Amino acid sequence: MDEMLILVDADDNPIGSQSKTRVHQQGLLHRAFSIFIFDSQGRLLLQQRAFSKYHSAGLWTNSCCGHPRWGESTLAAAQRRLQEEMGFSTELQQVSSFTYQAAVPGDLIEHEFDHIYVGLFDGKPEGAPEEAHSWSWTDIQQLTDETTRNPEKFTVWFLTIMKDLGANEMKRWARLAAS
Known about the structure:
By secondary structure, the chain is α+β, with helices and mostly antiparallel strands. Helices cover 30% and strands 36% of the residues. The strands form three sheets. A four-stranded mixed β-sheet has the order 6-3-8-7. Strand 7 (92-104) and strand 8 (108-120) form a beta hairpin. The protein starts with a strand and ends with a helix. 33% of the residues are buried.
Protein backbone atom coordinates (compact mmCIF):
# COMPACT_ATOMS: atom_id res chain seq x y z
CA MET A 1 0.00 0.00 0.00
CA ASP A 2 1.25 3.47 -0.91
CA GLU A 3 2.14 5.63 2.09
CA MET A 4 -0.16 8.62 2.66
CA LEU A 5 1.54 12.00 3.07
CA ILE A 6 0.26 15.14 4.81
CA LEU A 7 -0.44 17.97 2.37
CA VAL A 8 0.22 21.41 3.84
CA ASP A 9 -0.16 25.06 2.93
CA ALA A 10 2.76 27.51 2.84
CA ASP A 11 2.55 27.89 6.64
CA ASP A 12 2.69 24.12 7.27
CA ASN A 13 -1.01 23.85 8.15
CA PRO A 14 -2.44 20.44 7.16
CA ILE A 15 -4.91 20.68 4.27
CA GLY A 16 -5.38 17.00 3.40
CA SER A 17 -3.53 13.84 2.49
CA GLN A 18 -2.55 12.06 -0.68
CA SER A 19 -0.57 8.99 -1.71
CA LYS A 20 3.20 9.36 -1.77
CA THR A 21 3.29 8.41 -5.45
CA ARG A 22 0.72 11.02 -6.48
CA VAL A 23 2.34 13.70 -4.29
CA HIS A 24 5.68 13.20 -6.02
CA GLN A 25 4.16 12.91 -9.50
CA GLN A 26 2.25 16.17 -9.09
CA GLY A 27 4.75 18.05 -6.93
CA LEU A 28 2.26 18.73 -4.14
CA LEU A 29 3.52 20.57 -1.05
CA HIS A 30 3.78 18.10 1.84
CA ARG A 31 5.30 17.84 5.30
CA ALA A 32 8.69 16.17 5.66
CA PHE A 33 11.73 16.10 7.89
CA SER A 34 15.48 15.81 7.49
CA ILE A 35 17.69 14.58 10.33
CA PHE A 36 21.35 15.51 10.77
CA ILE A 37 23.19 13.31 13.27
CA PHE A 38 26.62 14.42 14.48
CA ASP A 39 29.18 12.59 16.59
CA SER A 40 31.16 14.12 19.45
CA GLN A 41 33.94 15.00 16.97
CA GLY A 42 31.51 17.18 14.98
CA ARG A 43 31.32 14.83 12.01
CA LEU A 44 28.04 14.36 10.14
CA LEU A 45 26.52 10.93 9.59
CA LEU A 46 25.73 10.55 5.88
CA GLN A 47 23.48 7.88 4.47
CA GLN A 48 23.72 6.40 1.00
CA ARG A 49 20.16 5.67 -0.06
CA ALA A 50 19.36 2.07 -0.97
CA PHE A 51 19.62 1.27 -4.67
CA SER A 52 16.04 -0.03 -4.57
CA LYS A 53 14.57 3.41 -3.68
CA TYR A 54 12.11 4.69 -6.28
CA HIS A 55 13.92 8.02 -6.56
CA SER A 56 17.39 9.28 -5.69
CA ALA A 57 18.54 5.66 -5.33
CA GLY A 58 22.20 5.25 -4.40
CA LEU A 59 22.70 8.96 -3.72
CA TRP A 60 24.30 10.26 -0.54
CA THR A 61 22.21 12.39 1.79
CA ASN A 62 21.79 13.51 5.38
CA SER A 63 21.44 10.93 8.16
CA CYS A 64 17.74 10.21 7.71
CA CYS A 65 14.65 11.66 5.99
CA GLY A 66 10.96 10.93 5.99
CA HIS A 67 7.37 11.99 6.35
CA PRO A 68 5.06 12.01 9.37
CA ARG A 69 1.84 10.05 9.30
CA TRP A 70 -1.52 11.75 9.76
CA GLY A 71 -1.93 12.48 13.48
CA GLU A 72 1.77 11.88 14.22
CA SER A 73 3.94 14.79 15.33
CA THR A 74 6.90 15.57 13.10
CA LEU A 75 9.29 14.95 16.01
CA ALA A 76 7.73 11.53 16.77
CA ALA A 77 7.98 10.64 13.07
CA ALA A 78 11.62 11.70 12.95
CA GLN A 79 12.43 9.55 15.99
CA ARG A 80 10.53 6.58 14.48
CA ARG A 81 12.26 6.83 11.10
CA LEU A 82 15.73 7.24 12.60
CA GLN A 83 15.23 3.93 14.41
CA GLU A 84 13.73 2.25 11.32
CA GLU A 85 16.34 3.51 8.84
CA MET A 86 19.55 3.67 10.87
CA GLY A 87 18.85 1.34 13.80
CA PHE A 88 19.39 3.72 16.70
CA SER A 89 17.63 6.44 18.63
CA THR A 90 18.86 9.65 20.19
CA GLU A 91 17.38 12.90 21.39
CA LEU A 92 16.48 15.21 18.51
CA GLN A 93 15.94 18.94 18.47
CA GLN A 94 14.48 21.03 15.68
CA VAL A 95 16.83 23.72 14.38
CA SER A 96 15.16 24.99 11.24
CA SER A 97 12.56 24.49 8.54
CA PHE A 98 12.34 25.52 4.92
CA THR A 99 10.33 24.89 1.77
CA TYR A 100 11.82 23.73 -1.49
CA GLN A 101 10.69 22.36 -4.83
CA ALA A 102 12.93 20.40 -7.18
CA ALA A 103 12.84 17.72 -9.84
CA VAL A 104 14.21 14.34 -8.77
CA PRO A 105 15.08 11.27 -10.85
CA GLY A 106 12.14 9.35 -12.29
CA ASP A 107 10.28 12.45 -13.57
CA LEU A 108 9.15 13.18 -10.02
CA ILE A 109 8.97 16.42 -8.05
CA GLU A 110 9.88 16.96 -4.42
CA HIS A 111 7.94 19.89 -2.93
CA GLU A 112 8.42 19.79 0.80
CA PHE A 113 7.94 21.83 3.91
CA ASP A 114 11.01 20.29 5.52
CA HIS A 115 11.64 20.33 9.29
CA ILE A 116 15.32 19.94 10.19
CA TYR A 117 16.35 18.06 13.33
CA VAL A 118 19.79 17.44 14.81
CA GLY A 119 21.05 14.88 17.28
CA LEU A 120 24.22 13.38 18.74
CA PHE A 121 25.30 9.74 18.38
CA ASP A 122 28.71 8.12 18.83
CA GLY A 123 27.85 4.53 18.00
CA LYS A 124 27.76 2.41 14.89
CA PRO A 125 24.53 2.71 12.88
CA GLU A 126 22.78 -0.47 11.76
CA GLY A 127 21.13 0.77 8.58
CA ALA A 128 18.12 -1.13 7.24
CA PRO A 129 19.21 -2.45 3.82
CA GLU A 130 15.94 -1.46 2.14
CA GLU A 131 16.53 2.13 3.30
CA ALA A 132 20.29 2.70 3.52
CA HIS A 133 22.87 0.97 1.36
CA SER A 134 25.77 2.45 3.31
CA TRP A 135 26.74 5.19 5.75
CA SER A 136 29.77 7.31 6.60
CA TRP A 137 30.93 9.79 9.25
CA THR A 138 32.16 12.85 7.35
CA ASP A 139 34.02 16.04 8.23
CA ILE A 140 31.81 19.03 7.41
CA GLN A 141 34.45 21.01 5.52
CA GLN A 142 35.40 17.97 3.42
CA LEU A 143 31.69 17.38 2.77
CA THR A 144 31.22 20.98 1.63
CA ASP A 145 34.10 20.56 -0.81
CA GLU A 146 32.75 17.21 -2.06
CA THR A 147 29.23 18.55 -2.68
CA THR A 148 30.76 21.36 -4.75
CA ARG A 149 33.03 19.06 -6.77
CA ASN A 150 30.59 16.16 -7.25
CA PRO A 151 26.98 17.32 -6.76
CA GLU A 152 25.66 14.37 -8.79
CA LYS A 153 26.50 12.05 -5.87
CA PHE A 154 24.01 13.77 -3.52
CA THR A 155 20.25 14.17 -3.17
CA VAL A 156 18.69 17.42 -4.31
CA TRP A 157 17.34 18.30 -0.85
CA PHE A 158 20.71 17.71 0.79
CA LEU A 159 22.45 19.90 -1.80
CA THR A 160 19.82 22.60 -1.23
CA ILE A 161 20.44 22.56 2.52
CA MET A 162 24.23 22.56 2.08
CA LYS A 163 24.13 25.41 -0.44
CA ASP A 164 21.61 27.58 1.41
CA LEU A 165 23.01 27.09 4.91
CA GLY A 166 26.69 26.28 4.42
CA ALA A 167 29.45 24.77 6.52
CA ASN A 168 29.25 27.36 9.32
CA GLU A 169 25.59 26.56 9.99
CA MET A 170 26.36 22.82 9.91
CA LYS A 171 29.11 23.35 12.47
CA ARG A 172 26.67 25.33 14.63
CA TRP A 173 24.22 22.41 14.42
CA ALA A 174 26.98 20.03 15.50
CA ARG A 175 27.62 22.21 18.57
CA LEU A 176 23.88 22.34 19.34
CA ALA A 177 23.62 18.57 19.06
CA ALA A 178 26.53 18.15 21.49
CA SER A 179 25.14 20.60 24.08
